[in-house]
Write a structure and sequence with these properties.
By secondary structure, the chain is mainly alpha-helical. It is built from seven helices and four strands. The protein folds into three domains: about 40 residues; about 60 residues, Orthogonal Bundle (DNA polymerase, domain 1); about 60 residues, DNA polymerase, domain 1 (Orthogonal Bundle). The protein starts with a helix and ends with a strand. Pfam families: HHH_3 (PF12836).
Length: about 180
């Protein structure tokens, strides 16, 4: 049985379209597999808090994009972490979260098991740079403390800091145990 030329052309055209579509589908599958493989980064634990990327931090169980970004923001505004315990100063990370993630993180060059003697910072003599080392005290608040101190004299109690613009009850509670007068 002979096919007419018209039928032969139709069959050839359908076969050609089929192979083109098959090629497109195969190419997409290959590209998707390559993209997935390339996007999966292997992270070695423990993650170093002072150098970790957003992706590194998000690889820690219990740390999503919001907490990871908060860790980075805290690190940048405080000049880095001096201990793993300092993670408790990051919004959204409490004692329980720290307990869960502490085995996945480290701070290089810091002995984690020995607690260093805590020295309190005298807010009446500290420089702007020294004040910036306090939790939640960045450059703006540190300058405000110094300016207030220069205009109004020395602080006598922690509550006097509430008169400084930008310092509220929550900030005061975070620094109360780290300051002296």
């Amino acid at each position: 049985m002979r096919l007419r030329k018209q039928h032969q052309r139709t069959i050839l055209f359908v076969a050609l379209v089929f192979f083109i579509l098959l090629g497109i589908v195969m190419e997409r599958e290959t590209r998707t597999e390559e993209d997935t493989t390339a996007s999966q980064k292997v992270v070695a634990f423990p993650v170093e808090l002072n150098t970790a990327s957003l992706e590194d931090l998000m690889s820690i169980p219990g740390i999503g994009p919001v907490k990871a970004q908060r860790i980075i923001d805290y690190r940048e505004s405080h000049g880095g972490f001096s201990s793993v315990e300092e993670l408790k100063n990051v919004s959204g990370i409490g004692e329980k979260t720290l307990e869960k993630i502490s085995r996945y993180v480290t701070v290089e060059g810091v002995e984690q098991h020995i607690k260093r003697e805590v020295t309190k910072l005298n807010v009446n003599t500290a420089s702007v740079e020294e004040l910036e080392t306090l939790p939640y005290i960045g450059e703006v608040k540190a300058k405000a403390i110094v300016e207030y101190r220069e205009k109004n004299g020395p602080f006598r109690s922690p509550e006097d800091l509430l008169d400084v613009p930008g310092i509220g009850e929550k900030t005061l509670e975070k620094i109360r145990g780290k300051i002296t007068f």
